[in-house]
Amino acid sequence: MKLNFHHLRAFAEVARTGSFTGAAEYLHLTQPAISKAVSGLEEILGIALLERTSRQVKLTQAGVSLFSHARSIFALEQAALQDIEERRGLRKGCLHIGASTTIATYWLGRDLALFLERHPQIDIRVSSGNTETMVHQVLEGLVEVALVEGPVDEDRLNCRLWHNEPLLLVTKPGVKREHLGQCRWILREEGSGTARVVAETLAHLGIVPARQIIVQSNQAAVQMVVAGVGVAIVPAIMAAHHLEQGELAYIPWSQGDLQRPLSQISLKGRPASPARAAFESFLGETLTLPNPAS
What we know:
Blueprint: H1 5-17, H2 20-27, H3 31-45, E1 50-52, E2 57-59, H4 61-88, E3 94-100, H5 101-118, E4 123-129, H6 131-139, E5 145-149, E6 157-171, E7 184-188, H7 193-205, E8 211-215, H8 218-226, E9 232-235, H9 236-244, E10 249-250, E11 258-267, H10 274-283
Parallel strand pairs: 3-4, 3-5, 7-8
Antiparallel strand pairs: 1-2, 5-11, 6-9, 6-10, 6-11
Helix pairs in contact: 1-2, 1-3, 1-4, 2-3
Family: Belongs to the LysR transcriptional regulatory family.
Protein name: HTH-type transcriptional activator CmpR
Keywords: DNA-binding, Transcription, Transcription regulation
């Protein structure tokens, strides 16, 4: 039994986009061609990969398993192509980095400036989003290495601690600790590294927010608190200016400093390009992040 990789790519795009139409548009093929390719793959494998209805396409258990393998295969394909292009001098020294939104906004620029002083010939491309988005992009082979908020529980990824970032519980001046249960809490969306840490912290403190607002960024959370909408747990660096201006106050933790881990992730089995190897070596040398609120 041999896999037809053209058929496998068609199946993978149907699984990724959730439709034959989406796969056809992405691969610049006709919808019947995509359907024929997937059917041919199912015939070769002797098992159904998709459940087809008039409204949607759903993966079978076998389809879920094959899609997981297909993503790894095509990530390795991208790595192979990049390696050859670098050897031919077409993209030598090009590195695609992923970063969670807060890291891209506040931390990455500092480190990239130092890294490029050592390696000025390397071109950098940065993608950003929440932690869940960055994990997806690493698994799909769209970025070589990513810096994300929180630990990542994914067997297909290498994950190591990069830094511990201090967090603060910020409020408008005058809010007391005993008022926290009655306050409106500004929380991050599901999939955010901050959301996971905050949920665990609130559970540990026994606080059940009476009311809450879900936002898509820590910057939005800080501005909500400045406006008096509620309270939030945010990275200290994002609140530092507002604390200095007296627009915000923070409530110290009785258990000590609250931190969240920032992690470096990459796809297991994907060979490191020279640019990525240099960047990962540099990350291992960077200093611990300072607490801007101290």
